[in-house]
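Notes, p. 3: input format for complexes.
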Amino acid sequence: EALTATATIKGDTPGPIYDRHIFTQFAEHLGTGIYGGLWVGKNSKIPNTRGFRNDVVQALRDLSVPTIRWPGGCFADEYHWREGIGPQAKRKVKINTHWGGVTEPNTVGTHEFMDLLDQVGAEAYISGNVGDGTPTEMAEWVEYMTSPSGTLAEERAKNGHKAPWKVPYFGIGNELWGCGGNMRAEYAADETRRFATFVKVPYGEKITKIASGANSEDYNWTEVMMQQATKAVGGLSLHYYTVPKGFEKRSVSVGFDETLWAETMSRTWKMEELLTKHGAIMDKYDPEKRVFLAVDEWGTWYEEDAGTHRGFLRQQNTLRDALVAGINLNIFAKHADRVRMTAIAQMIDVLQAMILTDGAKMVKTPTYYVFQMYKPYMDATVLPIDLKSPWYGKDQWVVPAVSASAVKDKAGQVHVGLTNADPNRPVTVTVSLTGVAGTAVSGKVITANAMDALNSFAQPSTVVPTAFTGARLDGGTLTVTLPAKSVVMLDLK
Ligand code: AHR
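Output follows (493 residues plus alpha-L-arabinofuranose):
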């Protein structure tokens, strides 16, 4: 027996743009996120272009990844850009103190990263080093990347790239409350002002600086930053991970029970509360919403896969992760006036990854396919949606069964994203459409028999989008039956 929900989509009162930068990806020097997962070197047997593996680059191109955040994360506040330029063989080999204590060869540095962006067709979001760096080092890195003239530009040309690069986004440190220096909010605000002062680009160029924001519910951080530092920046970040059982214990990534499924959904819905409350603080200081909220780390964080290094944060990705992705992408729509960038953590082989690799093998995860389904959302206009959903719960974990969002793309086509978190029961949603043209509906669905269904190297197509036939459009009413544990994307024509 299907549960029932009702919704209204208001096409005649369009909302903000669903900024394509909400689909930003995060790539840190962590585990095989860079080395192995993206970079295999020019002499590898794995087919590559100037060192970056072709299979992974193609998969990212297919997703139209708009922006990549690099080199960290925690890694960024210990990163010294000069160690990553010049002849690769001569670069300093360091210890990656955050992530496994392994050696960091600096083989992928600024030039290689910019080449990766070209290959993928993405823009740069560089995180600068506030933690153990200096304003001079930061300023010189930005000048090295963006200036057409001067000694640093000549050095860049000598290293193989005459033309300056564009750096549209630049992070003033990362997690300054933690691995970025364990600062108090007041001190971090001052450091943000100081470092940001010296980040400059040539006349006519634009760089949007993003301040290191709060961890989860640290509302005081947002308050202090907004009050004291945001004149210096265009964005303020927020990090929130879905961590069932908490960071100490953590959930397995496969083979979990329904209670853990429900806990994961509930901890994901926390994003709604966080965006509402951080957003309200930002509204106080910036009612015009000049400063955007960049949720530049989000996603699931589980126990590492058996046999892998704890510091590599390598985890499997299942249908549960697909739901987490869909729910978050729907929540971002509701807050798109303030949330104009987000970055899922992380792109390859780390945490809630798009892609998993093992040597020459590669597989696209359920999360990848959700991102693929939501591609029409990039720069589309959000249509307000009112939703009344039944509850789904197991033990103490209770959430709305359904989450939903809607957009109208530039061609005028309306897309409706829906999730059903109930793993046992379908939900029939009756949607009244006002101001939405359309006479036909088609769609895609991601679901599977098991809550922890996944795509393996041997069976890569277990959790993939398939044609969805559970929707009917009848005049101004759309009726959709969402299968249990599913993500659905509808296209109205
Ligand atoms: O994504 C992994 C780590 O999580 C990042 O390096 C850090 O910013 C956060 O704590």
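The radius of gyration is 22 Å.
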